[in-house]
Amino acid sequence: MNVLIVGSGGREHAIGWKISQSPLLKTLYFAPGNAGTTALGQNLPIAITDTEALITAAQQKKIDLVLVGPETALATGLVDALQNAGIPAFGPSRAAAEIETSKAFAKAFMQRHNIPTAAFACFEEEAAALQHLHTRPTLPVIKASGLAAGKGVLLPATMDEAETALHTLFTQRPNETIILEERLQGEEVSLLCFSDGYTLKTMPSAQDHKRLLDGDRGPNTGGMGAYAPAPVCSPEMVEQITQTILQPTLEGLRLEGRPFRGVLYAGLILTADGPKVLEFNARFGDPETQALLPLLQSDLLEIALACINGQLNNTPIQWRSESAVCIILATPGYPENPQTGQIIQGLAQVPPHIWAFHAGTRQRDGQFITAGGRVLGITARAPHLDEALHSAYAAISNISFPNMHYRKDIGQRALQETSSAYTNAGVDINAGNRAVQLMSQAVRATYTPAVLAGIGAFGGLFDAAVLQTMRHPVLVASTDGVGTKVKLAAATGRYASIGHDIVNHCIDDILVQGAEPLFFLDYFATARLQPEIVAEIVSGMAEACRQAGCVLLGGETAEMPGVYSSGEFDVAGTIVGCLEKDAILPRSDLQPGDLLIGIRSSGPHTNGYSLIRKIFAEAPLNEYLPELEQTLADALLAPHRSYLPLLRPLLHHPDRPIKALAHLTGGGFIENIPRILPPNLDARLRLGSWPIPPLFRLIQTRGSVAPAEMYRIFNMGIGMIAIVARTQTESVQAMLGEESWIIGELLPGNRRVILA
Questions:
Q1: Could you read off the pLDDT of 592-647 as tens digits, one per residue?
Q2: What angle, rounded to 10 degrees, do the helices at 729-736 and 644-651 form?
Q3: Which of 2, 510, 560, 627 has the smallest CB count inside 10 Å?
Q4: Which one of 562, 583, 604 terminates a domain?
Q5: Is residue 626 part of a domain?
Q6: Mind giving me the DSSP string for 111-157?
């Protein structure tokens, strides 16, 4: 058979992957397909809504069967047009697909056929909807009736948000019905079934993750990941849903002259009153398909033909007794403003037992390039869900593109279904063990022969024999925390940079005394452990340690429900370094006339984030800001810079030109410079002697922060200050190898900073 699959997403790649296994297949085509589908067949550059061109191509290629993936093509009546042209098509007619393409129709249909769903009201005018909104006892779910690529459902947290949501929908989608619906409570689950119009056969249950960020926060998306089967939906529950929802829906559609042939998707919520329908889809879900089809043992092509020919009742369907998970990798800015065109690295390193289903990809000069918001779906199958999750996340560690975003908590709800008494108290020992397992490889990559015992031991052992080569070794230690920057990391679901933050902050704190790091110990505490988040943070720490030649010796991962609120966590660490006693900074020969050299920062580092979060509380973090030439999230989550690689040659230089170093942390210029001054000297700072980065100007403008206060809170683009003799300034700046600025000088005084 010659088969054409219509669509270009991860769902269509997965369908094609499964169809390609059929002995009935001769040639496989995709329209338009993506960079991944070319490995399975031929891509045809035809839009999914170009019905005439699709029919022409099907006739020219002698297509025996068309499988329609996206809902947009179903809404245009592609299946009807293909069948009228004598071309068999798998998918519902335009009339049957209205169960998805019009939520207003679907709600009225369920009401007519007594199918359990949330109470609702439909509106064509904003004024009437607002009036109804203010008569409700609780906040509603607000839905656009038409197709919205999985993003047309809004869950306002306040009345103001609800009013804004209504205004936005009525403005952006004129002449469309808007639905206000009762907000139901319970676990959400997806149950899909094949149907030939009379018979239905269910697939394993699945659970999707619609929200962008971990903990089901952030905007709705097309789906950030899915797993199957969902433990929350037992076989008994599947039978109940089949009898009370799926079967009545198919019978009702047939009775109304809309027989449904294809895949019917029920998006459900398991309430205290039983399962209820949140929405119907008229096709395979995305990304549920990427998790479901690896579990299908039977021939998908045979099943599709049985649905078309009314023979589903005589077609056995077998599923694997395993678990599968799909984790979506998305571009920065998704879903509002996805940035594309980035090179995708590491796909060749994906193990053969892992499937990388392409979605928003294309090829350029032999490389894979991002071409959509959702880029890849990394899918793994294993006997148990935790094994599948481990395999999928391990595979993701090999893949990268700039600011790649993915959720770290896919499948966690399912894992929590298996609990112990200790877990019921809020502490998950298994999660802790899994976190150690995920982070261990990154931690051990920092080890040297000096490490005698590390991760997994009660205490780290570091061979102090390395100090024997020193004349008079002095140990230097420092402890610090990332602070409230962790809240920003949690809000954006981006955690690796705060691992860099804590290590580099501590390195810089001992660097100002002239020391180089020996080893680092981390501390991570949270209300509930999510192993992938811990592993991402610790992997960031390990990378920073490797770059500094420092050992990540060990640490503590603590789960403390009741101490931290849900979703909150803290990151801290301790570093131990060493130096020769006669090299301790600051030196004792600081004197009037010595100059201050400013070295650029990488951003606010880890300071001032309580104020920053307040200033940008309402700002969309993933919005691209032209004045910053990046998104606000990218600017605020830039890792704290380590100045060790830059300053190490100067600290070991025979002339020892650096007299003192000041790391600008909490307290900015006003508090940090005096920490290295003798009692008889002041530091005069020449304002305007270096360029202030746009981010700090934006903070000052939006927050209406007084200039003097900015220099007391922030580093203003200068992360490290070196004090040198006036005669050595030029040579020091040359040795730094990057742009630096003379920003001030020392003068007689009493340990103050003068802004001039």
A1: 999 999 999 999 998 889 999 999 988 888 888 889 989 999 999 999 999 999 99
A2: 130
A3: 627
A4: 583
A5: yes
A6: HHTT--B--EEEESSHHHHHHHHTT-SSPPEEEESS--TT--EE--S
Q: Is the dihedral of CA 699, 703, 704, 707 positive or negative?
A: negative
Indicate left, alpha or beta for 292 from its phi (over 0: left) and psi (-120 to 50: alpha): alpha
Where do the H-state alpha helices sit in 293-369? 300-309
CB 169 within 8 A of CB 154: yes
The 10s digit of each residue's pLDDT in 206-231 is 999 999 998 888 888 989 999 999 98
- HSE-up of residue 529 (Cα within 13 Å, Cβ side): 23
Rounded CA-CA distance 548/567 in Å is 31
Q: Is 310 helix (H, G, I), strand (E, B) or coil?
A: coil
Domain extent, residue 31, equals 2-93
Q: Which residues contact 575 (CB under 8 A, 6 or more apart)?
A: 477, 478, 479, 503, 506, 507, 509, 510, 517, 519, 520, 521, 550
* Residue at 681 is within a domain: yes
Does residue 22 sit in the same domain as residue 162?
no
* Dihedral angle over CA of 99, 102, 107, 112, nearest 10: -60
Which of residues 59, 77, 93 is at a domain's end? 93
User: What is the average per-residue pLDDT within 397-412?
Assistant: 91
Domain-embedded: residue 693? yes
pLDDT, one tens digit per residue, over 572-591 is 999 999 999 999 999 999 99
Q: Do 543 and 514 fall within a single domain?
A: yes
Instruction: Count the alpha carbons within 13 Å of 408 in the hemisphere toward its beta carbon.
Output: 22
Strands, E, within 8-126: which ranges? 27-32, 42-43, 65-68, 89-90, 120-123
Task: State whether residue 387 is helix, strand or coil.
Answer: helix
Kindly tell me the burial class for residue 97, based on how many C-beta atoms sit within 10 Å of its own C-beta (0-12, 13-18, 19 or more). Answer: buried
Cα 507 to Cα 447, 557, 691: the distances in Å are: 17, 21, 26
- Residue given tokens 């403390």 in the structure block: 560
Q: How many domains does the chain have?
A: 4
Please classify residue 510 by burial: count the beta carbons closer than 10 Å to its beta carbon, then call 0-12 exposed, 13-18 middle and 19+ buried.
buried
- Which tokens is 615 given? 């200033």
Question: Is residue 641 within 8 Å of residue 605, measured between CB atoms?
Answer: yes
DSSP helix/strand/coil, 194: strand
What is the SS3 assignment for 26? Answer: coil
On the question of a cis peptide bond just before residue 229, with omega within 30 degrees of 0, the verdict is: yes
- 317 in Cβ contact with 298 (< 8 Å): yes
Question: Which residue's structure tokens are 């299946």?
Answer: 79
